[in-house]
Design brief:
Blueprint lengths: L1 H20 L10 H19 L6 H23 L1 H8 L3 E5 L2 E2 L1 H7 L3 H10 L8 E6 L5 E5 L22 E5 L2 E2 L1 H6 L4 H10 L8 E6 L5 E5 L4
Antiparallel strand pairs: 1-2, 1-3, 3-4, 5-6, 5-7, 7-8
Helix pairs in contact: 1-2, 1-3, 2-3, 3-4
Length: 225
């Protein structure tokens, strides 16, 4: 039993490390060859876990080979446009100037119901509003609306807008994120002083606190405090 646990932990650790090195992507953003490699790696890792009679290296070596293949293919697709087209495929234009491209739908075996479903998921109900709809190599549908149908932006109306940066997390579950505070050239004493002004004496009572770009501190107390 101990041997099974050790082998499982080793294979789990190696698999997680390799998947992390392969990059951060959601399942829906993976290229076909990346999805195949991930499925194969998971299968290869499961075999030595289930059968202790199989040497551990018999699972680790194929996993390493697949990882190397993924890195190599990714490098080739990064360096060569031609290789990228062969490995990852090319985007397909499904709608052009509000007209469904029937030949392309037939070529990739993509039916109109799927197309309409994807458009609705993008909050587009009318094909007449679409300038282009492009099926990306990851399987995601990119929709470009006609200029008159796009949401109005402040720059369209020459309206000045205030800078909207990213809030900085200061406290999570009572623990001060000192690294973030130092980035802002502040310290924990400054944070405590700001909290005292809001009637909070103990940082441990905070569930969450962050600093907005305008200098406002947002905080939420733990339940029951």
């Amino acid at each position: 039993m101990v041997l099974v646990i050790i082998r499982t932990l080793i294979l789990f650790t190696v698999t997680v490390i390799f998947l992390r090195l392969m990059g951060k992507r959601q399942i829906g953003q993976l290229q076909p060859f990346e999805l195949v490699i991930i499925i194969m790696i998971s299968e290869l890792a499961a075999i030595p876990m289930e059968n202790t009679g199989i040497p551990l290296l018999s699972g680790l070596i194929p996993i390493f080979v697949l990882f190397t293949a993924q890195v190599t293919l990714s490098y080739l697709s990064l360096r060569s446009e031609k290789a990228r087209g062969i490995i990852c495929g090319k985007p397909s234009i499904l709608i052009e100037n509000s007209q469904i491209v029937e030949d392309e739908l037939r070529r990739i075996r993509y039916n109109i119901n799927d197309l309409l479903e994807q458009l609705r998921s993008k909050n587009v109900a009318d094909i007449a509003d679409v300038e282009y709809a492009i099926l990306e190599t990851s399987g995601q549908l990119s929709v470009i609306l006609k200029s008159e149908k796009r949401p109005v932006k402040p720059e369209d109306m020459d309206l000045p807008v205030k800078y909207d940066g990213l809030p900085i997390t200061l406290v999570i579950d009572g623990q001060v994120i000192n690294e973030n505070i130092k980035k802002m050239n502040y310290n924990e004493e400054w944070l405590q002083q700001k909290l005292n002004e809001s009637g909070i004496n103990n940082i441990k009572d905070l569930l969450f606190a962050s600093l907005d770009p305008d200098g406002t501190i947002y905080f939420q107390l733990k339940k029951g405090v």
